[in-house]
Design goal:
Blueprint: E1 2-4, H1 12-18, E2 25-29, E3 46-51, H2 54-61, E4 67-68, E5 71-72, E6 74-76, H3 89-96, E7 105-109, H4 117-123, E8 130-132, E9 136-138, E10 145-153, H5 156-164, E11 170-171, E12 174-175, E13 177-181
Antiparallel strand pairs: 1-3, 1-6, 2-3, 4-5, 7-10, 7-13, 8-10, 9-10, 11-12
């Protein structure tokens, strides 16, 4: 079973004791947070608990919403993934078609010719950690957008978040090309 909403101070022994009336616990796998000394380690708020029979497992699942260490536990079958956020199909598709490896830069193509550095800042504004939205390709004579920009982010995670955000793939009715890039490209 999967047990969530554990207090970070809950121990393996406390979990075993909590389920003693459900049946024989054969194993408790409780991931701990990295960092700190072993004597100060804390669990990550969830655990996997294994039982010696299906009946014991079903009984343990019925303990959901009971309190342990001052917390109401959420208990589910370890193979039940309902309630988890589903990956966005557009974001998955965007990641799958990447030709460059993830990095700090995103290439954005098929921009409207009216796009400006300011409109890019507003459009990609959900990702405030962006460093440089001024990498917009411009015609030298008119200063208008050539239809592309190179955006620099402060981290690979921020660039990935911007790439995965489905709101960042359509601007003014145009389907944008959003890809990882590098400054040399």
């Amino acid at each position: 079973i999967w047990v969530g909403n554990l207090s970070f101070k809950t121990t393996d022994r406390m979990v075993r004791s909590f389920f003693k009336d459900a049946g024989r616990v054969t194993r408790v796998r409780m991931p701990v947070q990295k960092g700190g000394s072993a004597s100060q380690s804390q669990n990550r708020g969830f655990a996997y608990v294994y039982f010696d029979s299906k009946e014991a497992k079903q009984e343990a699942i019925s303990y959901s919403e009971r309190e342990l260490d001052g917390r109401r536990l959420l208990i589910k079958d370890g193979t039940d993934f309902s309630g988890r956020p589903q990956p966005d199909p557009l974001a998955q598709k965007a990641l799958q078609k990447q030709q460059s490896s993830p990095g700090y830069f995103l290439f954005v193509g098929n921009l409207p010719f009216e796009a400006t550095a300011q409109s890019l800042r507003e459009f990609f504004g959900a990702h405030e950690q962006s460093r440089n939205m001024d990498g917009i390709g411009q015609f030298p004579d008119s200063g208008r957008c050539k239809g592309w920009a190179l955006l620099e982010y402060s981290s690979e995670q921020e660039a990935t978040a911007a790439l995965n955000d489905p709101r960042n793939h359509v601007m003014d009715g145009r389907n944008l090309v959003v890809e990882f890039s590098n400054p040399e490209a």
